[in-house]
Specification:
By secondary structure, the chain is an alpha/beta fold. The chain has helices at 39-42, 81-90, 108-119, 138-149, 169-182, 193-205, 212-217, 220-237, 249-260, 271-275, 278-281, 301-312, 351-360, 366-380, and strands at 4-13, 18-26, 29-35, 48-51, 56-59, 61-66, 71-72, 75-76, 93-101, 126-132, 154-158, 185-189, 241-243, 265-269, 317-318, 398-408, 427-437, 440-443. Strands 1, 2, 3, 4, 5, 16, 17 and 18 form an 8-stranded mixed β-sheet that branches. The protein has an 8-stranded parallel β-sheet with strand order 6-9-10-11-12-13-14-15. Strands 7-8 form a two-stranded antiparallel sheet. Helix 4 (138-149) runs parallel beside helix 5.
């Protein structure tokens, strides 16, 4: 552990404040802040000084939705915990919350242990886990209580993927009732999977096999219907609800209505829904398969409603749902049958930069950028103020961000272990320059200086919006 570090002359941006301040780091934590040029700041002494003049000093990003090494459709997500967390660091993210998977017929504990084994000693940045619940029974419900006690405080259920992760309304209600008692938060993949499977079968029977039909069968109305149903089940259970990867304006409307009624309902969207559309799914020569994810990309007109939701706080979080599959050999499994294309996009490295571009474009403010990418995910999943802000006592997860640097996103230069970029050729203003994780330099002036095993498992408290 190095001694002290001082970051001088930058604009410190948190969800609540912007101040030209010097930041003192000691023993892996933020020790003090003082306005630049004041006697208090001048008095900071340290072995290492980082000059942030003309740059932003922001909290490390918190990506609360990633899938490293996820088994899906007969293959595995191409990023390991080692490659994925390294790429996250390059993109200014210093904490991920990944999903441990319970397989049907197995216990939550087995799934959680398996994910601990994948991650331990391999991560460049800190990590936590949510638990995917695929098999609700009396034993599972008891295990949920135990997991909450040990810092796995959120549980994901699926209204989609019958035969794999799917839970019916009765199973969902039981899990929600349990979370109402134990303080856990149910995260919902809200799509009507039973109806979607019928539409998939009918489309394939008509010979509609190209990637674009993936978006057409997973209808926005079926996302809205499932979102509505999840909200009502949560209301019956007296439980909070967090809806993941919201892509359709009709689903945003359901969340807004519930929130207007004062219900503890939260929504997340992802960069792919803010920047990409069905135009990408329709790209010729099977290129569209690169953009197959669920919920699917929507027509462009949905984007404005998602941005509006982020501004009005009907959507609170932007995560990536990072789940990369290579075009060659993985996405290609679905040539001739879109239903066999592995679902997922790479994005853990791009989120902070894309959202800064949204600041440049006038969609959101700088503070809102930090709120949706750092502070709110940390609060939502019980890690604040240890993560998600720059304040005395917080972990020294800090990014020096150059708001003027220009970059072109490309698979040639990204660090994710995947053979394409979903944002290939996109020009962005703003770039990560230096990243500290608990005071240790992980990225130093655009060079990777971190190492696998620096990142540690982070137990979480319950959702801080419910206390």
């Amino acid at each position: 552990m190095t001694g002290r570090t001082v970051i001088r002359g930058g604009l410190v941006i948190t969800a609540s404040d912007e101040i030209h301040a010097d930041v003192l780091i000691e023993d892996g934590r933020i020790a003090a802040l003082a306005a630049t040029g004041t006697p208090a700041a001048e008095a900071f002494t340290a072995e290492r000084t980082i000059d942030a003049t003309g740059k932003y000093v922001i909290p490390g990003g918190v990506d609360a939705h990633t899938h490293m090494e996820l088994p899906f459709g007969g293959t595995f997500a191409s990023d390991t915990f080692e490659t994925g967390t390294r790429a996250a660091a390059w993109g200014g993210t210093t904490t991920i919350v990944d999903f441990a998977v319970q397989s049907v017929g197995h216990s939550l504990r087995e799934g959680l242990d398996a994910w601990h084994a994948k991650a331990e000693g391999n991560c460049a940045i800190d990590y936590g886990f949510h638990m995917i619940v695929s098999d609700v029974n009396q034993e599972t419900l008891k295990e949920m209580d135990l997991l909450v006690e040990e810092g796995v405080t959120s549980f994901k259920q699926f209204m989609a993927y019958p035969g794999v992760f799917y839970s019916d309304d009765g199973q969902i209600l039981r899990a929600m009732q349990r979370s109402a008692e134990n303080g856990g938060l149910i995260m919902m993949h809200a799509e009507n999977g039973i109806a979607i499977d019928v539409l998939v079968e009918q489309a394939l029977a008509r010979g509609e096999t190209d990637p674009r039909y993936h978006g057409e069968v997973r209808k926005a109305l079926l996302e809205a219907e499932a979102t509505h149903r999840a909200i009502k089940l949560a209301q019956v259970a007296g439980a909070p609800l967090y809806v993941v990867h919201v892509s359709a304006m009709e689903a945003v409307a359901e969340l807004a209505r519930a929130r207007d009624e004062g219900l503890p309902v939260f929504g997340e969207t992802c960069p792919q829904y803010l920047f990409l559309s069905t135009d990408n799914l329709a790209e010729p020569d099977f290129e569209g398969s690169k953009y197959v994810c669920s919920t699917p990309l929507r027509p462009k007109e949905h984007q404005a409603k998602l941005w509006q939701g982020l501004r009005t706080n009907d959507l609170q979080v932007v995560s990536t749902d990072h789940c990369p599959f290579c075009f060659v050999g993985q996405k290609e499994l679905g040539r001739g049958d879109f239903s066999k294309i592995p679902n997922g996009l790479p994005g853990v490295e791009n989120r902070m930069d894309l959202l800064h571009q949204a600041v440049v474009d006038g969609h959101i403010t700088r503070r809102r950028w930090i709120e949706i990418a750092c502070a709110t995910p940390a609060r939502m999943f019980g890690m604040y103020p240890k993560k998600g802000t720059i304040t005395p006592g917080a972990d020294a997860d800090v990014v020096i961000y150059d708001p003027h640097a220009e970059q072109v996103v490309s698979a040639e230069t990204h660090h994710m272990n995947v053979d394409y970029s979903a944002y290939e050729g996109k020009r962005l203003t703003g770039r990560v320059e230096t990243v500290l994780s608990r005071g240790e330099l992980v990225i130093t002036e655009r060079e990777y200086t971190g190492h696998a095993g620096h990142g540690v498992y982070t137990p979480r408290s319950t959702c801080q919006y419910l206390n």
